[in-house]
Amino acid sequence: MDGFLLSRADRTLRTAGARSRYDSASAAITALADGDTELVVGALPFDPARRAALTAPDSWEFTSGPWQPGQVAELPPVRVARQVPEPAEHVARVGALVDRLRSGALGKVVAARSVVLASETPVDPETLAARLIQSNPRANGFAVDLTSAGDGFRGHSLVGASPEVLISRRGRAITCRPLAGTAPRRTDPAADEREGLGLLDSTKNLAEHAFVTAWIEEVLAPLCTELSVPDAPVLTSTHEVWHLATPIRGLLRDPATDALSLATLLHPTPAVCGTPSDLALAAIRETEEERRFYGGAVGWCDAQGDGDWVVAIRCAEITADGLEVLATAGGGIVADSDPQSELDETTAKLRTLLGALGAVVAE
Ligand SMILES: C=C(O[C@H]1C=CC=C(C(=O)O)[C@@H]1O)C(=O)O
């Protein structure tokens, strides 16, 4: 695919072509400020030291409501080719992180793992995005061409359905909806409700969540004349999991502060990285395979500075030939995390992508 799609509950942006490409947010911000383009779309990588995949599109269209893809084609069958790392190794890594969290300066770190899916015929990114959006039109569904990030990403795409908004800006008004803290959904309605209510009451999950809201408040407070961060999170859900969410609103001090700059200041939040940020990022670089664009941000920014950026979770990278799909999910680890439950949490989160592709990983 050569374009960009972001489908949100209130509106959808679809673009085509790439008039210019930028591998850093600063280059894209300069292009917007210089009047070289009216719109920038794309993805920021998880690791801020890596190259971004941003473009100035040839054409674009905003429509109201979620994307209506019409008749959606079938996706080809896929099989689980390998897991990276193997589940037992993920459990061991989380165990080692828990030891570090109990003894050191680290307060929280997010641990992620991937499943590599293989297909005999190409998986089309837009078809996968359409399936995800049909299954949950409230999610922030996306499909992004990663070519602008250069070697290793040409022709690759990132496709997902994120429940988490990093930052949205309309004029001076900004909103964020950070998520952290997870419980599984149950098929029995009473058991399902108990899981949700239990999450709202879970000291461990509330602590995991508080690291994220504290970070966002720290970053945004100096930039805002008004900032409302509720004291306690609310419950939200996808088909697969319950989450704790905090709806945050603010008014920017300087109307020139644009959405893409705000995204780069906030990213990576402790919802995908940890606290303190620098130590958590170092621990992730030491422990994990390169995250690429999983855990990054996907969105758009226009010449007025407005834009939407969602956290790149519940997503997968598709290779240029469409024959390999790398789905990744992570979870926040704190001192009292249980490694086996953390593995189960990533399995539940991976189901968003794997379910759309008709694949399963063993419990
Ligand atoms: C990092 C992910 O989820 C984040 C968002 C919601 C809940 C999370 C958690 O409970 O750990 C994570 O912070 C992911 O889905 O890969």
UniProtKB/TrEMBL annotation:
Alphabetical list of InterPro entries matching this protein: ADC_synthase, Anth_synth_I-like, Chorismate_C, IsoChor_synthase
Keyword Isomerase applies: yes
EC number, UniProt record: 5.4.4.2
Root EC class: isomerase
All copies of domain Chorismate-utilising enzyme C-terminal, residue ranges: 88-349
TM helices/strands, residue ranges: none
Record keywords, A-Z: Isomerase
Catalytic reaction list: chorismate = isochorismate
Pfam family of the protein (one): Chorismate_bind
GO MF annotation: an example: isochorismate synthase activity
PANTHER family xrefs: ISOCHORISMATE SYNTHASE ENTC
Family designation: Belongs to the isochorismate synthase family.
Entry protein name: isochorismate synthase
Lineage, highest ranks first: Bacteria, Bacillati, Actinomycetota, Actinomycetes, Mycobacteriales
